[in-house]
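[AMINO ACID CHAIN]
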Amino acid sequence: MAHYGTAHYDLAIIGSGSGNSLITPFWDDKKVAIIDAGIFGGTCLNVGCIPTKMFAYPAQLAASAVQARELGVNLVHEGSDWAAIRDRIFGRIDAISEGGRHYRADELENVDLYQQHVTLTADHRLLTDSGTTIDAKKIVIAAGSRAVLPQVPGIELPGIHTSDTIMRLEALPERLVVVGGGYVASEFAAVFASFGSTVTQVNRSGALLREQDADISAAFTEAAAKRWNVELDANLVRIEEHDGHLRLHFARAGGELVLDADTVLVAVGRRPNTDTLGVAALGLDLRSNGALCVDQYQRVMRGGEPVEGMFALGDVANVDQLKHVANREARVVVHNLENPGAMRVMDRGAVPAAVFSNPQVASVGLTEAQAIAAHGANDVATAIQHFGSTAYGWAMEDTEGIVKLVAHKGTRRLLGAHIMGHEAALLIQPLIQAMVTDLDLVEMARGQFWIHPALSEVVENALLSLGLESRPGDPL
């Protein structure tokens, strides 16, 4: 709906991802503005979690042919129909995005959708690119993040993509260079390698997934190098066109690395969109990564104090950049907007994450190094259990999968859990629950039945391998 001059609202939401879920029946008799210059539904729906995992699953099927042959099953991957996979995925996602946009823009009389960029000009005032001023009693900033591009010569050449565009390629590239070593880079490297592209992943540091526990990072780097080409300790210097393709130059010790590619994916991180909103001019507090500082109630901060009536959530206001974190933050903001006299806090304990690459990785809590820094080496117990040490691991002939647990000796509580291997994101869930419920790990290991010979026995065995001290009354 178009407005001219000044429009007044009870609530204005910047961002249509998790921010879209803030519009509950509470606002039915009030005026709400939702503002998003991008694709309706935000990052997760359109260019993030959902489409990437919809690519990851068929990629897993394609890659299974290699493992099957090792088990005596003659599966053959005869190629992947990239266009069919792409169109199946976005045929579903684009319809959901458009349905959400239509519902907010056309069906709800109390909601106005502004599909344009806005700038904060005061604590409760926004200015759209078309010149409309939006005054709102409450403002929620949920504007998300965007992919970072390194400022090197040639970075704007055709054929260079971020995660926003790589999934809509017209055809599967023969040669793909992936620049980056984090979860986005590693997921896409696995997808394209499984479908049949020749993939080279280049990272500026000496290992992939460096944010993971050191043992997991090292194990994943080794496993990835068996599936696609991995080049480490190489910094991108420039990109140029050469005989109809792209040529990338990397600086590394001992000489230059030069790679040719049909397509390049740059996945070196994401930046919160705070710098596009004018928040610095308002003096709002920012984290070192550019995200807004919020208090325990998700209220925006200035000078260490909450700004009345302003909340923020998601990538624009946290360091996790995880959809399940943004969703929890949204539920907290919903409650606190509607119950200002009885607000609830955002619980950031036991935040898990998963990397849907090949192999899969999942983690929660502290790494071993972080645990030792926090509690001291004498109070930290660790255990590494290989998938291949269990009966189901034998069935899989698994030689890579590992579970690493980090525990506090005195309290027998879990400090961190890190898994690499088949369905790691599922295997880690009981360990997340153990942290949230403050479960004694000896009780967890011995006080319940573990199905034999399920793969979950690797978690049971890892718990037992911690060697935590027995106490009178412990289960047998």
Notes: The CA atoms of residues 297 and 335 lie 10 Å apart. The longest strand covers residues 6-14. The mean pLDDT is 96. The radius of gyration is 24 Å.
